[in-house]
Amino acid sequence: MYLIMTDSYSKWPEVYALNEIDAINTVNKLRNYASRYGISRKIISDNGKQLDSKEFVNFCDLNDIKYPQNAPWHLKSNGAAENAVRSFKSGLKKTLLDPKNYQLGTNTLIARYLFPYRNTPYCYTGDSPAKLMFGRKLRTCFDLLKESSVIEKDKHKKLQRKTCRRIYSWRARLGD
Predict the structure, then answer these.
(1) Which residues pair with residue 16 across a beta bridge?
(2) Distance in angstroms (rounded) separating the CA atoms of residues 137 and 111
């Protein structure tokens, strides 16, 4: 069972594995989320039972978080939550069915799903969730390839300049 949270502005997803879906675990994960990204202003959900509890309501009240009660399965009111769940299920299912991932743990597979998702530009904003969340692109394996080719080109240019200086200084000594 997973708790999936998505920032409405940046579309940055967070996925937390839960052994039990109850109010205490949910509130603890929300505290964890708030410690990294700040306290949310509003929570829109798919109306799980744990979100009707006294602990959850108390957490929202103490932190001035608005939590409107939406009609369950009403896409206009909680479509973003439903899309995040659908996208996560689809992505995790694909990675679990891939024979290359047979010996990998679930947390590794979740990280492998989230990393490219967070770096892929969102169709409506034109920017990736990482760019909107942190103001920069996250470094990827493609960046490593690009950096190594830039380093090689830079080394080649420095070597050329050094060789040219040696030739020039040698000619200057000869009086050319």
Answers:
(1) 3
(2) 17
Collapsed DSSP state (helix, strand, coil) of residue 112: helix
Residue 28 pLDDT greater than 90, yes or no: yes
pLDDT category of residue 32 using cuts at 50, 70 and 90:
very high
State the DSSP H helix or E strand holding residue 56, giving kind and residue range, or none if neither: helix 54-62
Distance CA 113, CA 94 (A): 9
Q: Using CA atoms, how far apart are residues 158 and 47, in angstroms rounded to an integer?
A: 62
Query: 64, 32, 28, 26: which is closest to 47 by C-alpha?
Result: 26
In total, the chain counts a number of residues equal to: 176
**Tens digits of residue pLDDT in 53-69:** 889 889 999 999 998 77
**Strand (E) positions, the chain?**
2-6, 13-17
pLDDT tens for each residue of 114-128: 998 999 898 888 899
Written as six digits, the tokens of 62 are 């103490």
Q: Which amino acid is at 70?
A: N
Nearest Cα neighbor of 118 from 99, 98, 134 is 134
Residue 95 has pLDDT above 70, yes or no: yes
Give the integer Cα–Cα distance in Å for 43 and 41: 7
SS3 5: strand
Least confident of 86-95, 107-116, 126-135, 166-175: 166-175
